[in-house]
Design goal:
The chain is an alpha+beta fold. The chain has a single domain, classed as Rossmann fold (3-Layer(aba) Sandwich), CATH 3.40.50. The protein is built from 5 helices and 9 strands, in the order H-H-E-E-E-H-H-E-E-E-E-E-E-H. Helix 4 packs parallel to helix 5. The longest helix is centred in the middle third of the chain and has 25 residues. The chain is elongated and about 50 Å long.
Length: 212
């Protein structure tokens, strides 16, 4: 089965927070993460919290510590030029920052520009990123039912770098209206992944209210 048939089934630059596409930016050790207790939450695949954990205030620094692609997707589209993948990593980091920032501000948090000024750090990463209709070349047309999928890993840390909350969620973008096929473009992919990130942000900020 061909790659195309398999996959047929306004960026805001933020200056008030920074993103880092480096594996070295892991929030804390595995031992510290196991101190969190898993709770039932219908919004995410996995939700773990620190009982009685609290933030000192509502000043939050946001960082994106990684954007990585799904392994099968990388093999299927191994001929994509490296600069395209690097641009996607940069752009989707900015999309995620944009939506997390908007969700936090809407909920009354203040976004600060450094960890030193923050009461808490929200560390986010995306893995298993699949874009069902990537830009193969100028003339290519790929029609898809949805833009793709990704796994969010979001951790809230207090000012002592102790984890208060972690959520993990693998989710597809919304289906096209009427489950129709749509010609995938850069704009349509950004639109649908932005919508997915907005939903994640809204759900995460609701969960964070227990820590302030």
């Amino acid at each position: 089965m061909s790659t195309l048939s398999r996959f047929a089934s306004g960026i805001v630059l933020l200056t008030s927070c920074a993103y880092f596409l480096s594996a070295s930016a892991a929030p804390n050790s595995q031992d510290e993460m196991t101190q969190l207790e898993e709770v039932q939450n219908g919004d995410f695949d996995q939700t773990r919290i620190k009982p009685n954990g609290k933030l000192a205030g509502k000043k939050i620094f946001i960082r994106v510590s990684g954007i990585s692609f799904d392994d099968d997707w990388s093999r299927d589209f191994q001929n994509l030029e490296r600069h395209y993948k690097e641009r996607i990593q940069k752009d989707y980091a900015e999309l995620l920052l944009e939506q997390l920032r908007q969700g936090l501000v809407k909920s009354g948090y203040e976004i600060v520009g450094s960890e030193a000024d923050a009461d808490g750090v929200l560390d986010a990463s995306l893995s298993d990123l699949r874009i069902n209709g990537p830009e193969l070349d100028v003339a290519s047309q790929i029609f898809v039912h949805n833009a793709g999928s990704a796994t969010l890993n979001l951790t809230l840390l207090d000012h002592n770098n102790q984890a208060l909350m972690q959520v993990i969620d693998n989710r597809e973008t919304r289906l096209k209206a009427g489950n129709d096929l749509e010609w995938a473009t850069r704009g349509s992919n950004y639109r649908d992944f932005r919508h997915l990130m907005k939903r994640w942000s809204e759900k995460a900020t609701r969960l964070m209210k227990d820590f302030v």
